[in-house]
Amino acid sequence: MFAVSNLLSAAAQVLDMALTAYYWIIIVRALISWVSPDPFNPIVQFLQTVTEPVLAPIRRILPPMFRFGIDISPVIAIFLVIFLKSFLVRTLFDLSLRLRL
């Protein structure tokens, strides 16, 4: 069972790093949106391509009373990433530890 335990532990580490990178990508996108970026810049296009699949559904779900000129979907997405890091990654680590015993 140690092989499955090591696999889950490695998956948890990779997921943790991916979620951390996505966390920073969302923050950078939110900061760049404040300065009117060039839409043809490859970095801006990358940030929009990577974050829009998560931010667009959040914007659609938000009730109209939360749409007051400021886009709060990045804040909600950051909370979701933090939740996934604290729940899913920890669960995978704990599961890998239990399999090792």
The major beta sheet can be summarized as: none
Number of helices: 3
Question: Strand-and-helix sequence, N→C?
Answer: HHH
Question: In total, how many domains does the architecture comprise?
Answer: 1
* Number of beta-strand segments: 0
Low-confidence stretches: none
Helix content: over 70%
Using the alpha-carbon principal axes, give the shape: elongated
The share of residues in extended strands comes to: under 5%
Average of pLDDT: 92
Termini Cα gap: 9 Å
| Secondary-structure-derived class | mainly alpha
**Roughly how many Å is the radius of gyration?**
17 Å
What would you note in describing this structure?
InterPro entries: CCB3/YggT. It comes from Velamenicoccus archaeovorus. Keywords: Membrane, Transmembrane, Transmembrane helix. This is YggT family protein. The chain crosses the membrane at residues 7-32, 72-93. This protein has 101 residues and is mainly α. It has one domain (2-100). The protein has 3 helices and no strands. It has helices at residues 2-32, 42-61, 73-100. Helix 1 (2-32) packs across helix 2 (42-61), helix 1 runs antiparallel to helix 3 (73-100) and helix 2 packs across helix 3. The relative contact order is 0.19. The mean pLDDT is 92.
